[in-house]
């Protein structure tokens, strides 16, 4: 009997590996190369055009001494924490309700997911109109007789970021709901039957059994939400353009303004590098939880 040697690991799925070469080269040359280029030039005094005049950490010192950047980081933290918490809570609750096999489930799912189909610019303009005190929700309710009613977050520097948060939640919660619903539908029905037989309350079943079983879904959802938080830009531009004053500034807008309007590439590159660092802070724990724990498990 002739024994056929096992194929060398390197040549397994050779066609797929060859087909992936253009994508790998693109990622290395454009994405990785562009990232390294941005980091290198963040240590230069580039203005209108890139120039290799190293200034050390001057751009970063100037960045962290600028009030506008500090305000943008504070806004990002507030928006990010609130967006993470409320998106997950609201999305999971909506998914749990739809998972009860209610009537017209497809209709409700479509309605809740519809805002995600809109661009952030459209969403921002819609909520700019809704929150406008002259002809939005405040004006409508006052015309109905409640003269003292007031809701104008986009014109109050102390709470303007929460007005942007409302628009972001309205658009993104539908996607989170669908991800959570897919996770819930993947739970074996025997788990629910066993919980009912043991007399475990529904809320305890969700909290101590279902949610731990949905860990991969939650990790993926967290990464999606976090990536959207770091690059939030369109909503701010459409709703407030960073105002009133600099009260609703965010890092992405800071980078855009300095690179394309302020003609200060070095400062824009430094801010971009700090945004990249924030992305790595999200991706590294995710990669460890997703792959490292499996390897050690």
How would you describe the overall organization of this protein?
The chain is mainly α and 297 residues long. The chain has a single domain (66-296), classed as MetI-like (MetI-like fold), CATH 1.10.3720.10. 69% of the residues lie in helices and 0% in strands. It has 13 helices and no strands. It has helices spanning 14-41, 58-64, 67-98, 105-113, 120-130, 137-143, 160-185, 189-197, 202-213, 215-230, 234-239, 251-261, 265-296. Helix 2 crosses helix 13, helix 5 (120-130) crosses helix 7 and helix 12 runs antiparallel to helix 13 (265-296). The radius of gyration is 24 Å and the shape is flat.
SSE inventory with pairings:
Layout: H1 14-41, H2 58-64, H3 67-98, H4 105-113, H5 120-130, H6 137-143, H7 160-185, H8 189-197, H9 202-213, H10 215-230, H11 234-239, H12 251-261, H13 265-296
Helix pairs in contact: 1-13, 2-13, 3-7, 3-10, 5-7, 7-10, 10-13, 12-13
């Amino acid at each position: 009997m002739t024994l056929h040697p096992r194929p060398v690991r390197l040549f397994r799925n050779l066609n797929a590996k060859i087909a992936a070469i253009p994508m790998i080269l693109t990622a290395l040359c454009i994405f990785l190369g562009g990232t390294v280029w941005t980091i290198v030039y963040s240590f230069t005094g580039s203005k209108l055009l890139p120039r290799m005049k190293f200034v050390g950490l001057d751009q970063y010192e100037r960045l962290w001494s600028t009030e506008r950047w500090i305000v943008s980081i504070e806004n990002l933290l507030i928006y990010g924490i609130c967006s993470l918490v409320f998106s997950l809570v609201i999305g999971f609750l909506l998914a749990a309700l739809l998972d009860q096999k209610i009537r017209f489930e497809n209709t409700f799912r479509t309605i809740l997911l519809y805002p995600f189909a809109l661009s952030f610019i459209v969403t921002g303009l819609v909520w700019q109109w809704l929150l406008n005190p002259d002809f939005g929700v405040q004006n409508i309710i006052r015309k109905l007789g409640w003269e003292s009613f007031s809701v104008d977050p986009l014109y109050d520097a102390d709470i303007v970021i929460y007005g942007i948060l409302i628009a972001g939640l309205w658009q993104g919660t539908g996607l989170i709901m669908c991800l959570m619903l897919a996770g819930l539908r993947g739970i074996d029905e025997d788990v629910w039957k066993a919980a009912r037989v043991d007399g475990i309350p529904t809320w305890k079943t969700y909290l101590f059994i279902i949610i731990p079983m949905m860990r991969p879904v939650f990790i993926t959802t967290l990464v999606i939400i976090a990536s959207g938080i770091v690059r939030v830009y369109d909503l701010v531009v459409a709703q407030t353009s960073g105002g009133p004053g600099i009260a609703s500034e965010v890092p992405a807008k800071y980078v855009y303004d300095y690179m394309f309007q302020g003609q200060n590439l070095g400062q824009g590159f430094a801010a971009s590098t700090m945004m990249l660092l924030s992305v790595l802070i999200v991706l590294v724990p995710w990669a460890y939880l997703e792959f490292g724990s499996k390897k050690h498990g």
